[in-house]
Specification:
4-stranded mixed β-sheet; 12 strands; mainly beta; elongated; 2 domains; about 160 residues; Immunoglobulin-like
């Protein structure tokens, strides 16, 4: 959403206020805003906006995407970092892919950094979707949800 001065005299100055909804974003973000003018030499100006969205907990990537041929060990990791100075704890609150995908939580840096490794259990080809829900000790974000997508293909198929 943007607010701006409707009329600016030739050679004058004006202001444009751009508001960005950062809900669901974390870390560094980049957005562009197009400004349309009546200047015949430059009808459109593009403004690059960079920001850092502070979050209590950083998750990267935001989901686990496991894919590959059946019969091979298929796994992906997701990092969870504390965004606050205080210690972060994680505890399982639910996982709905048991029997198809396993996970292990490794505390890389005590109370600060965790790595969650998702591994597809060997079996028939197929597509699986589910989530891992983790309870945290942060009141700002008492639960995190990590989506998991697994695409296990026949050994001869690559797509």
């Amino acid at each position: 959403m943007a607010r701006y001065d409707r009329e600016i005299p030739p050679g004058g100055e004006g202001s444009i206020t751009v508001r960005i909804n950062t809900k669901g974003y974390q870390g560094e973000i980049r957005k562009k805003a197009r400004i349309f003018t009546n200047d015949p030499r430059k009808k459109v100006e593009v403004v690059d906006i960079k920001a850092f969205v502070k979050a209590p907990i950083y998750i990267s990537p935001r989901f686990a995407y496991i894919r590959g041929p059946a019969g091979q060990s298929l796994s992906r990791s997701v990092s969870v970092r504390a965004g606050e100075e205080r210690s972060l704890t994680l505890e399982e609150a639910g996982f709905n892919l048991g029997g198809r995908v396993t996970y292990a939580i490794e505390e890389v840096e005590a109370g600060r950094f965790y790595r969650i490794r998702f591994t597809a259990i060997p079996g028939p080809p197929g597509d699986y979707r589910g989530v891992l829900r983790l309870k945290t000790n942060y009141p700002e974000r008492p639960q995190i949800v990590i989506p998991v997508i697994a695409r296990v293909r026949s050994e001869g198929r690559t797509r």
